[in-house]
Amino acid sequence: MVQVAVVGSGQMGSGIAQVLATNTDKEVFLYDISAAAVSQARDSITASLRKLTDKGKLPKERVDRAMGQLQFVTDLPALQRSVFFIEAIVENAAAKTELFQELDRIAEPQAIFASNTSSIPISTLAKATKRPEKVIGMHFMNPVPLMSLVEVIRSPQTSDDTYNTTCTLAKEMGKETVCSKDVAGFIVNRILMPMINEAFFVLHDGIATAADIDQAMKLGTNQPMGPLALADLVGLDTCLFILEVLYRDLKDPKFRPCPLLQQLVNDGFYGRKSGRGVFHYER
Ligand code: 3HC
Q1: CA of 146 to the centre of ligand 1 (A)
Q2: Whose CA is nearest to atom 21 of ligand 1?
Q3: Which residue lies with its CA nearest to atom 37 of ligand 1?
Q4: Which of 31, 57, 193, 282 is disulfide-compatible with 52, CB 3.0–4.6 A?
């Protein structure tokens, strides 16, 4: 069986590994540094698959097969045979660069490295390896099992072969692809984050309640969830981080993060994952 690897087993990495296992016939290795992290990933994938089968969105046999295709590992050399790597670790350039150097040492020369980064230039990661033409961005949307888009980001060095193989894998996973240049925010976050930020300004300026802001955008623009609930889903810390990258890299004041968003993050209110963001969540 062809082996693919997902490096980093957080919310995004788990979702990516889950979809690879349910939608392709590949052997999927999900790696994280600690046994606790991979065990949590196994639990969250099991819970997500149960939800999808309960709702009739995934046949039970497919779930059993998917769990058989998944391997949870904490040993990086176990990934050696993988032909395609998808990195989804913490959004930190130094950590990602170090990982890409390490993967470059252990992986077969023909293996492709994709990063799920939302903010770090693909060319920076490519430079960390001896295979820059085989490095590409593969930006999945949250929650990965439910969202059909993958933004594919080419650096100036990415080869046509790498791009075509990446799009083919995304399609096998049941995703649609769009192609973006390697510029901060790519397409989705460049447009989405200013909208989310503006929703925080509307709340900050006392123009409407959080519930009414979300209701207005849901019913007024047919969005599946309001921008504030979406910020809670993505993580307020993640939204703030992306806005700071847009502000820094594109040098346009329209990206300045709303002080209310900054305050909530400073106070430890990160959204769903911490039980409280703009809204409260049962845990
Ligand atoms: N696996 C299985 N089920 C999941 C899940 C997962 N990983 N994540 C959430 N769900 C479930 C919820 O638990 C909930 O189930 P429940 O009602 O039984 O508790 C259900 O999905 C949500 O209920 P809905 O009936 O509202 O589900 P829908 O299928 O109608 O829609 C949605 C859910 C797809 C999340 C929809 O609300 C939506 O599209 N929201 C917008 C999401 C979005 O815009 N994401 C992109 C963010 S940007 C990004 O990710 C980029 C990054 O860089 C920041």
Answers
A1: 6
A2: 146
A3: 224
A4: 57
Q: Which atom of ligand 1 is nearest to the CA of 15?
A: 7
58 CA from centroid of ligand 1 (Å): 16
244 CA distance to ligand 1 centroid (A)?
25
Digits of tens for pLDDT over the chain (283 positions)? 899 999 999 999 999 999 999 999 999 999 999 999 999 999 999 999 999 999 999 999 999 999 999 999 999 999 999 999 999 999 999 999 999 999 999 999 999 999 999 989 999 999 999 999 999 999 999 999 999 999 999 999 999 999 999 999 999 999 999 999 999 999 999 999 999 999 999 999 999 999 999 999 999 999 999 999 999 999 999 999 999 999 999 999 999 999 999 999 999 999 999 999 999 998 7
To test the pocket of ligand 1, the residue of 49, 91, 146 to mutate (highest count of ligand atoms within 8 Å of its CB) is 146
- In angstroms, the Cα distances linking 243 to 87, 124, 190, 258, 280 are 22, 20, 9, 9, 23
Kindly list the structural domains of the chain, giving each domain's residue range(s) and its CATH number in brackets, ordered by start.
3-181 (3.40.50.720), 190-273 (1.10.1040.10)
Distance from the alpha carbon of residue 134 to the mean position of ligand 1, in angstroms = 32
Which of 64, 8, 68, 59 has its CA nearest to residue 38?
8
**Which residue's CA is the nearest one to ligand 1's atom 18?**
51
Angle at 165 between CA 86 and CA 149, to 5 degrees: 65
Which residue is it, tokens 């193989």? 165
pTM for the full model?
0.95
Q: Are 225 and 147 in contact (CB under 8 A)?
A: no
Residue type, position 283, single letter: R
